[in-house]
């Protein structure tokens, strides 16, 4: 069995490092895609584990809550990568609620199911409409479509959580103005 405490700590460290680079502010939206199967070293969708998902969730939310960052938990492709968010987040970002409840083995996945159970007032939204400011993809779940353009990859010290490949990304404002423009280094 996987070392759940180590998975929790790896998750927290990866998100902490990403937040340092991303310069997110309180109230910003952070998206997480996580395959518990991949964390266990198995093919995505084949060995769902609520225990692994809960460890990842604890590590990530511990860091996000300290900074006042909002979580969006991505479901699997069987729910078209819909996302679990707090109702308050749905309203704050003017998102469209849809009707489904994620399940660990059928549609949604273990991480989204865990988020649904742990959040105070969860709802499912079909899309974030590219309003996330950063995110972490644990196990190649494909989160890029949820992040505000322009999406920039971020390398963190944690390359894997358990056995799952970790990919981090953040947004940056688009460059405009061409070769004569001068850019604000703090936004790059």
Automatic annotation (TrEMBL):
Signal peptide positions (record): none
A Pfam family assignment: DUF436
Protein family according to the UniProt entry: Belongs to the UPF0340 family.
HAMAP family to which the protein is assigned, alphabetical: UPF0340
Matches recorded under NCBIfam families: TIGR01440 family protein (TIGR01440)
Name of this protein: UPF0340 protein FYJ35_09845
Source organism (scientific name): Porcincola intestinalis
């Amino acid at each position: 069995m996987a070392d759940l405490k180590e998975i929790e700590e790896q998750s927290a460290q990866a998100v902490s490092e990403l937040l340092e680079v991303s310069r997110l502010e309180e109230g910003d939206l952070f998206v997480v895609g996580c395959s518990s199967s991949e964390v266990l070293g198995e093919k995505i969708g084949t060995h769902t584990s609520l225990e692994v998902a809960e460890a990842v969730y604890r590590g990530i939310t511990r860091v996000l809550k300290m900074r006042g960052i909002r979580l969006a938990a991505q479901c699997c492709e069987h729910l078209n990568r819909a996302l679990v968010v707090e109702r308050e987040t749905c309203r704050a970002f003017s998102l469209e609620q849809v009707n489904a409840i994620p399940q660990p083995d059928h549609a949604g996945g273990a991480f989204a199911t865990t988020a649904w159970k742990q959040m105070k007032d969860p709802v499912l939204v079909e899309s974030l409409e590219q309003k996330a400011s950063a995110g972490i993809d644990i196990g190649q779940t494909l989160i890029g479509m949820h992040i505000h353009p322009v999406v920039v990859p971020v390398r963190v010290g944690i390359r894997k959580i358990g056995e799952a490949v970790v990919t981090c990304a953040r947004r940056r404002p688009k460059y405009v103005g061409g070769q004569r423009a001068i850019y604000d280094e703090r936004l790059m």
